[in-house]
Amino acid sequence: MNGLCSRVTPDRFSYRYENGSAYYHEDDREGLLKICRLVIHTCYEDYTVEGFNVLCAKQPVIYISSAARTGLGQVLCNQLGLPLSCMCRVPCNTMFGSQHQMDVALLDRLIKDDVECGKLPLLLVANAGTPGAGHTDKLGRLKELCEQYNMWLHVEGVNLATLALGYVSSSVLAATKCDSMTLTLGSWLGLPAVPAVTLYKHEDPSLSLAAGLTSSQPVEKLRALPLWLSLQYLGHDGIVERIKHASQLFSCTKSVIGVGDSEVTSVHSFTCALSLQLGEQLAQLVPASGIDVVELEDEGTCVRFSPLMTSAGNIPQTGICYKIMAHTVCDLTTSAKTDLYQLYL
Predict the structure, then answer these.
(1) pTM, to two decimals
(2) What is the pLDDT of residues 246-284, one digit of tens each?
(3) Which CATH architecture describes the domain 235-340?
(4) Transmembrane region positions (predicted)?
(5) C-alpha separations of 302 from 62, 128, 224, 247, 274 in Å
(6) Which SS3 state, helix, strand or coil, does residue 47 take?
(7) 283-291: long-range contacts at Cβ-Cβ below 8 A with a sequence spacing of 24 or more?
(8) Structural fold of domain 12-233
């Protein structure tokens, strides 16, 4: 048993994340939850003995983007036993840059205000692919801000999958400098019943143990076994092929519907404002394609197609979806196509 446990290591899952440790978990929010506990143990030396009393003296603050997953902040507060006042939602840009990226200047002001009020800025959750539109926050600038205020930077999002490719955009590559990241390889690669993995860097193993990120029990170490076996079977080439397949689907769809670069939110998860009728037809004809209609605060009602979240497990279905989309768009009149490309429905 011990020999098998020693072979199941996170090296093959490193995703350019050097010298990091790995924690495997079923719920994709559990990794971030344990990271929060690790940071609390690190910043509050007497937390193990005094518990919540030390938090009352200097209230911790966790910052998340307004574009983060719905209910993420409430789940973290509930599981950590913190009041909702410990969660700060950072608005996205309103004047400059993407309207789905965290406003870095405003975040700086929020942190300064919290410090002046005697609070302790604890952790920042950034996105490499927001759930709604697939945008990546300015991770480089956010990392500099976290270093300035001695905060922990955690990154999550579908665009982290591209770290496995030979070429990675600089905006996503900046995620390799963060303190921790969560990878949901099962959904990206179409692997059922495999755990998610959170990679993190921390020098004190005793605090990692206290936070629940490590365990001496062999059964806990073998939690990674299904993922390890799956990746052994796929190999590096198989992993890259599946991620590249999602890129090709994106490129084909982009060429068919005529979306310009300025309207594309990311290579592997994007929102495009097709007509509501077309989106509903595609979702009905190919349910496994992952086509869905979403409401975005700035753009209104849009059709979202995230190939990376659907293509790996449903390659035939997403291929059919592309053909249906191409056929439908080609049959439209010029005026209908113009209407199709409009941002607002």
Answers:
(1) 0.83
(2) 777 766 665 555 554 433 333 333 444 445 566 667 667
(3) Alpha-Beta Complex (3.90)
(4) none
(5) 30, 20, 37, 20, 6
(6) helix
(7) 285/320, 285/321, 285/324, 286/317, 286/318, 286/320, 286/321, 286/324, 288/314, 288/317, 288/318, 289/314, 289/317, 289/318, 289/320, 289/321, 290/314, 290/318, 291/321
(8) Aspartate Aminotransferase; domain 2 (3.40.640)
